[in-house]
TrEMBL record:
Gene Ontology cellular-component terms listed: outer membrane-bounded periplasmic space
GO biological process, alphabetically ordered: cell wall organization
InterPro entries xrefs: Ig-like_fold (IPR013783), PapD-like_sf (IPR008962), Pili_assmbl_chaperone_N (IPR016147)
Segments forming domain Pili assembly chaperone N-terminal: 40-154
UniProt entry keywords in alphabetical sequence: Signal
Species classification: Bacteria, Pseudomonadati, Pseudomonadota, Alphaproteobacteria, Sphingomonadales
Keyword Plastid: no
One Pfam family linked to the record: PapD_N
Signal peptide segment: 1-26
Annotated protein name in UniProt: Pili assembly chaperone N-terminal domain-containing protein
Length: 231
């Protein structure tokens, strides 16, 4: 199946004056890229950041809140006050020597709301010291960590509506769900084809092209608990 937990890192290109040869790479490795703060568990988690390169790395961790995620109104909101943002990330600046590892603590500091609060934390290397006159192009790889702060009572209800050769799913609950292992088979349960996977946030819709004559099946997961549903 498609692993929708795997997030593709953001690729950041910057022209820097460095002593390294052209094409040098600044490698960061994170221990996890999705933090799911579910009820009954600690409201803080740690991310191990590893400088897997031969150069010193200057790293920043920048949190934002994602409003109306997965909808046309989605926007990222920056708020320097953790008390207002509802999320504390520390440290937000680090210097990592080659091979060094450090922990970044991500903690929810507001009460749980009536529905998910969604955050992104950009953990990325930034330009460091310029020590020589040789020009080079340095490839810097950063990560956009997903942080989910779920409500106390979880409702991952998903409805579906068909129209011709498509089906539209809607999350009518208060917490996001993962929809994966999707398939559509013929009446005999054979000739199955795989359907795409997605994370569906509260209030968001998702349209998938399907055969109008046959049922659709998905595994729907809410905070680690999953069921197989037919639509």
């Amino acid at each position: 199946m498609t692993d929708i937990r795997a997030l593709l890192p953001r690729i950041l290109l910057a022209a820097l004056a460095l002593t390294a040869s052209p094409g040098a790479r600044a490698n960061l490795v994170l221990s996890q890229v999705i933090l799911d703060l579910v009820p009954g568990t600690p409201q803080a988690q740690d991310i191990e950041v590893w400088n897997n390169s031969k150069e010193r790395s200057y790293v920043v961790a920048e949190p934002v809140e994602v409003k109306a995620p997965g909808t046309p109104e989605e926007q990222r909101v920056t708020q320097p006050d953790p008390g207002i943002l509802g999320l504390l990330v520390t440290p937000q600046r680090m210097i990592l020597e080659p091979g060094q590892r450090r922990l970044v603590r991500v903690a929810a500091v507001a009460p749980r709301g009536a529905r998910d609060r969604i955050y992104r934390v950009a953990i990325k290397p930034v330009a460091g010291e310029v020590t020589a006159g040789n020009s080079a192009l340095k490839l810097m790889v950063g990560y956009d960590v997903l942080v989910i702060y779920r409500p106390e009572q979880l409702d991952g209800s998903v409805s579906a509506q068909r129209s011709g050769g498509s089906i539209t799913f809607r999350n009518s609950g208060n917490t996001n769900v993962e929809m994966f292992e999707g398939k559509q088979c013929d009446a005999a349960g054979r000739a199955c084809r795989t359907l795409p996977s997605n994370r569906l946030y509260p209030g968001a819709t998702w349209q998938v092209a399907v055969d109008p004559a046959n049922p659709v099946e998905y595994r729907v997961a809410t905070a680690g608990q999953s069921v197989v549903s037919k639509f």
